[in-house]
Backbone:
């Protein structure tokens, strides 16, 4: 079951790694009665941003605005697609630790389901982990993870966890 009537789904999108392959799976949420979807994009918090600011004399606030603007431009077609499906859409873009922000947003928005993509193989996850892995381990919310099986074929495998 992907959602329940009147509930909110959280789609944690990684625009850098083409997690748009999940969009077809999102349609099932609407068909199951989910009315609202929160699109969350988290740019990774990094100490290197502060080093860049010091060494290159880059204005970090301006740099962050540029990153946010680029992310909004990338997310706009996804937002429009969800609106056309009949979802009420909310977009959240922040710069923090990805899995922590995903869990925090799920709490604040009181979602009924977290939808994420996983682009790494199961063996890779066992060795190094992925963003979806710590979220599934720590989430109190049901998870719907779409694992990309192959970059060449674009084939997807559905994993329902949680």
Residues:
């Amino acid at each position: 079951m992907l959602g329940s009537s009147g509930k909110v789904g959280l789609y944690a999108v990684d625009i850098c790694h083409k997690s748009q392959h999940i969009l077809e799976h999102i349609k099932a949420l609407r068909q199951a009665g989910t009315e609202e979807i929160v699109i969350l994009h988290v740019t990774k918090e990094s100490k290197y941003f502060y080093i860049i600011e010091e060494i290159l004399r880059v204005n970090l606030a301006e740099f962050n605005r540029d990153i946010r603007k680029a992310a909004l431009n990338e997310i706009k077609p996804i937002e429009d697609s969800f609106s056309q499906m009949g979802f009420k859409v909310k977009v959240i873009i922040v710069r923090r630790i990805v899995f922590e922000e995903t869990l925090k947003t799920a709490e604040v928005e009181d979602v009924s389901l977290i939808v994420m993509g996983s682009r790494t193989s199961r063996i890779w996850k066992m060795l190094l982990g992925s963003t979806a892995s710590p979220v599934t381990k720590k989430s109190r919310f049901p998870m719907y993870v779409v694992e990309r099986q192959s970059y060449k074929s674009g084939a997807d495998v559905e994993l329902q966890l949680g």
